[in-house]
Amino acid sequence: MVNVSLFRGVCLIALGICLSSSVADSALPRSPLPAPMPQVLVIKSAEAGIYDQAVKGLMEGLEKNGYRLGKSVEAHQVSLPADKKNEERFLTNLLQKKPDLVVAIGTDAAVKIRASLNQNNLKQVPVVFTMVLDPVALQLVQSLNRSGGQFAGVSLIIPPARQFQLIRDVLPEAKSIGVIFNQEEPIFQRLVTSAQNDCQRFGFELRALPLSPQQDIASALATWSEPPDAIWLIPDKLTVDQEPFKQIMSFADQKKVPVIAFAELFVRQGALAALATDFYDQGATAAEMVSAILRGDRPEEMPVRAPRNYKLTFNLSKAKQLNLTIPDTLINLADTLIEK
Length: 340
Hints:
Blueprint: H1 4-27, E1 39-44, H2 49-64, E2 74-79, H3 87-95, E3 101-105, H4 107-119, E4 127-132, E5 151-155, H5 160-170, E6 176-182, H6 186-201, E7 205-211, H7 217-221, E8 230-232, H8 237-240, H9 242-255, E9 259-261, H10 264-268, E10 273-277, H11 279-294, E11 310-315, H12 316-321, H13 328-333, E12 336-338
Parallel strand pairs: 1-2, 1-3, 3-4, 4-5, 6-7, 6-8, 8-9, 9-10, 11-12
Antiparallel strand pairs: 10-11
């Protein structure tokens, strides 16, 4: 015969052991689940060396600010497609994955990203731009002092007066400066218009050649029956992509016209000189802003950062071809001298 009292006692003891074990388990500290790694999407305006310099500065800058690539942050890098018909779908597919932050490298990327974010109602995704000429005119930000929205970043503004001073120092007898720009882009119309007063102050006539993207640049250059004394190259994709730049340099070499550029890359490809922002530093500055936002800062409260460093480059081989002598004072100030 089973002793009922003993049976009940055993059951109660077993139940107590189970309960106490359950309570003990719940009291044990549990390892927290790892926080998801921030996903940063980097979009370049095009496949070009000047954008790659900024990307390098961005990636190394993130590391310096404590974000190890693949360890504490994921950064995925792409370029806008050359085929503009697929551009909208391309951006929509990328942005619908809802990255934690987007970095726009170049004006074209920043403008296209803004349109895609608005179209897909993704106004919560912060965007840090760099290498953008005039973010206020493009309505990316409300002012230089406070962005006021989801965009914040670094401007590419080089005052035209500084470049005109360089032209005057190198070409003291010059009377005219030519500039080629996309007439369908208000930002470049504004830049050229605003440069008129500076040009006059240095005693130059600014000879503007507005183009549309459909125009053949070589045919347009031929309309300059009298070539200008110098060509001022601005960061307009219509003129600095590989093929149009080759056509500009072909015209300049044929007419013996010096080209003053905005990046060392173009001096290495035949321009006489460049006063440029440091594109690597543009990326590094953007990395500081990316790091701050990932740590909780709000992009709408951030001011637009100005370029911190300028670089002066001369092509001494080109100067020799043009029978020009660059003053020693400028040679001594140069960051880079190209001699071949």
